[in-house]
Amino acid sequence: MHFPIGNLTLALYYLVLSALAFYGLHRLALLAIYFRTRKNLPPRPPDPDRWPLVTVQLPVFNELYVATRLIDAVCRLDYPHERFEIQVLDDSTDDTRDLVAERVEHYRKQGFRIAHLHRRDRTGYKAGALAAGCQVAEGEFLAVFDADFVPQPDFLRRTIPWFSDPGIGVVQARWEHINRHYSTLTRAQAIFLDAHFLIEQVARNRAGHFFNFNGTAGIWRRQTIEDAGGWEHDTLTEDLDLSYRAQLVGWKFLFLPDVAAPAELPVDVVAFKRQQFRWAKGSIQTARKLLGRVLASDLPWSTKLEAFVHLTNNGAYPLMVLLSLLVFPAMLLRRDTDLATLLAVDLPLFFGATVAVIAYYVVSQIVAHESTKGSVRYLPSVLGLGIGLAVNNARAVIEGLYQDGGVFERTPKYRIESGTDGWRGKRYRARAHVSVMTEGLFALYFTLSVILAWMLAMWSSMPFLYLFLHGYWYMFLATLLGDRRRPWRIGLSSAAADEA
Prior knowledge:
Elements (H helix, E strand, L loop, with lengths): L4 H33 L16 E7 L6 H8 L9 E7 L5 H14 L4 E5 L6 H12 L4 E4 L10 H5 L8 E10 L6 H23 L11 E4 H7 L9 H11 L3 E12 L5 H28 L4 H12 L3 H18 L5 H29 L4 H6 L1 H10 L1 H13 L33 H20 L6 H20 L19
Parallel strand pairs: 1-2, 1-4, 2-3, 5-7
Antiparallel strand pairs: 4-6, 5-6
């Protein structure tokens, strides 16, 4: 049967919007689980009679500005010094190596059990460094902190007692944000992460579903890593991969939202996009690797469904790119649609794809005790940023569907702790990927769409179109103009950019 192009466009539009609404409504489901289970945390266990030996692992790679801050913070941990050791797992190829060596020697002379383990070969990247550290670690438990973190002195004392339950393999803490109020970009990222840690992680954990170690600010029982097969580097999210393998063999994970570890958010949009690309690609690689095992297991169907959504959630980004192409033509085709159809079809889909997401972020800010009034002001930026990431993350998803592993391009940090700190002109600036030009084309496309919608008096379409306009223009301009000294420096992103 032959269908006119208009019908095909609308059919594809509704199909894409329905899939996005599914992922949006899932956030409402997480909110419901959160409110039902948020108090399902047993009382804190008493302190052990004898504190166990803990190895604190600090994986770093070319972190000139923050590596020593991390080492200083870990050496302030209020834990018996004879009961913990520190491993600086250093893959650096620049001056970071000398700075770390000097700081390690300083603390070693003060009596700390601290070692500087430098690798000349970055095989396995972060996963390889952690695996190498495990081979010589003495601790029964392994705490991990990335270079941009500044753990509080009581971190180990507040987390280690929970391992009194022999079935617990991981205790994960929440991330806090040192530079939350630095810029619109950092405020939007903070809202993204608050929702993940305060709603998503709590809901999954309290409901008994799988959730993941977040790569840092958490502690592993050594036996858990060994039982799960150890750190592997065939995905770019080694933390997500090992988390699922560990839970598949029966280990329990625990999330502690009341224990927070401050960290620095990326202030450069190119660095932020690099981080998001790695997370999106790695999650799809993990889905390819493990989702079949999850679905074939004897886990409850609700846990399998949650795992499916968790591991495939970034698949929404290619759908968002398709929606970007279809949304304005679909609006033109539906100009004469009757009100009953709009209420029956369009309104539920719009609610799932947009309103549910807004509610999810608003609740996260209430739970985070942030000013709701102030946070609401940044919600358009949050939604726009999510749309603006579509091209970057869709590329990541597509690569993740057919490619194992890849170059682990770490997110550079610049020790931004206050509004007066600067980052432009510092080292480690990454090159923008050529896909930024696609973001620019979408920005122009939605500029024309808004103009046409205005001329045709399509007032109800304007707020929806504005989100796309805002998201793509922000991502395009922030990428090109983030460094005013070299705004047009564009190339293929690579590990070599870390040396730039």
